[in-house]
Amino acid sequence: MIVSRLSFLNYRNLCEGEFLPDSHMNVIFGQNAQGKTNLLEALWLFTGGRSFRGSRDHELIAFGQEAAKLSLTFFSEEREQNAILTIQNKKRSASINGVDYGGVMELVGKCRAVVFSPEHLSLVKDGPALRRSFLDGALCQLRPVYTKLLFQYNRVLQQRNALLKEIPRHGELLDTLEIWDEKLAQRGARIILERSEYIRLLSQPAQVFYGGISGEKEQFSIRYHTVNGKGSNSEAQWQEHLFQLLASNRKEDISAGFTTVGPHRDDLEIQVNGRLARSFGSQGQQRSCVLALKLAEAEVLQSISGESPVILLDDVLSELDSGRQDFLLNQLGEKQVFLTCCDPEIAARYSGGGRFEMEQGRLSVRQ
User: Fold this and answer.
1) DSSP for 167-229?
2) Residue 237 neighbours by CB under 8 Å, 6+ apart
3) 309, 49 contact by CB (below 8 A)
4) Residue 341 φ then ψ, to 5°
5) Residue 365's beta-bridge partner residues?
6) CB within 8 Å of 45: residues ≥ 6 apart
7) How far apart are CA 122 and CA 133, in angstroms?
8) 100 beta partners
9) Distance CA 242, CA 184 (A)
10) pTM for the model
11) Which of 308, 282, 286 is nearest to 297 (CA)?
């Protein structure tokens, strides 16, 4: 995938304009709070995902405006395509190649990107919810059908949890719990197998990238940790195992008021030199872990889909020495890269592509 044009109107501090990027490296530099990250965020939204900064949709609209509009022209699936994204107070809508859609789900799998921002350091440091979100987000881009599976699982989970809260007051509802157990086990088994297979694909390239970033001085590994105990490679056996596990934990679930087992409680274990990076890794090691995972995500996405994803790197170089900076950028191959930084001297080192200065929401081309 190659982006050839991004236009924006009333998007955060990007009032009105367009961006014509280079097909390879694009360095966007400027002081803090000028709009560099906003530009990357606008590109990311075309994947169909939410803001990688955790912002709500109404926060994406320029102050005093009712809506923001983004338009992306890109080359993918051997043809030029166009997508338009409209953001209103509580709703986003999209059109692709002139066809209007009520929501943005149709964008999933059309525009592929991998993003790293300082916020992603919490992927290692914080709790398992963010690591599950990383796995699920990557799988949604790789296999858009996974988006539907995840939505169905979460909907059944919400319904089961609501029932668990009602049972202490209405004991006659206990007999209906088995129906939701069956549905949850069916979808949960598929999610566990999809995540496990993705981690298998991710592991080797992530080890290679981490080795390069660390100068081959440290060992990196990942594994899927499930609270559901040992299962099987068989979907049917996983389904039966989850069903029995839900049944045996009913008393605990009713007491807690929520479902205590299932893939919504699982984790991605990240280790450096055989120890959990979350607990024992330095800040530099944790940053290197996230970078390795993100670069491996791009590698897997390209190898499976046949489409090279766009790479969005927000302030990734600020705490890396020049050797690690060069390693990262040299490993990106022929992918289209959008890199933000504050230091114009860093931008000057990569003159092979496009260099753009951002000032108060306005882009200027620099030679």
Assistant:
1) TTT-GGGGGGHHHHHHHHHHHHHHHHHHHHHHHHHHHHHHHHHHHHHTTT-S-EEEEEE-TT-
2) 231
3) no
4) -160, 165
5) 356
6) 51, 60, 70, 85, 87, 92, 104
7) 12
8) 95
9) 8
10) 0.86
11) 308
What is the tens place of the pLDDT at every residue in 166-218?
999 998 889 899 999 999 999 999 999 999 999 999 999 999 999 988 888 89
Nearest to 45 by CA among 109, 107, 126, 91: 107
The pLDDT assigned to 333 comes to 67
Q: What is the distance, to the nearest Å, from the Cα of residue 10 to the centroid of all Cα atoms in its chain?
A: 25
HEC states along 82-139? EEEEEEECCEEEEEECCEEECCCHHHCCCCCEEEECHHHHHHHHCCHHHHHHHHHHHH
Question: Average pLDDT of 147-173?
Answer: 94
- Per the structure block, which two tokens stand in for 188? 């949960």
Can you read off the two tokens belonging to residue 50? 């939410």
In a 3-state reduction of DSSP, which class is residue 54? coil
Which bin fits 149, alpha (ψ -120 to 50), beta or left (φ > 0)? alpha
> What are the CA-CA distances from residue 160 to residues 149, 153, 178, 237 (Å)?
17, 10, 10, 22
pLDDT given for residue 228 in this prediction: 72
Q: 10 Å Cβ neighbour count for 236?
A: 10
Q: State the virtual CA torsion across 225, 219, 209, 343 in degrees, nearest 10.
A: 110
Length of the chain: 367
Q: In the structure, what pLDDT confidence band is assigned to residue 283 with cuts at 50, 70 and 90?
A: confident
CA 102 and chain centroid, separation = 23
- The pLDDT of 217-228, averaged and rounded, is 89
333: alpha, beta or left? (left if phi > 0; alpha if psi -120 to 50): left
Domains of the chain: 124-285 (1.20.1050.90)
Average per-residue pLDDT in the chain? 90
The amino acid sitting at 199 is I
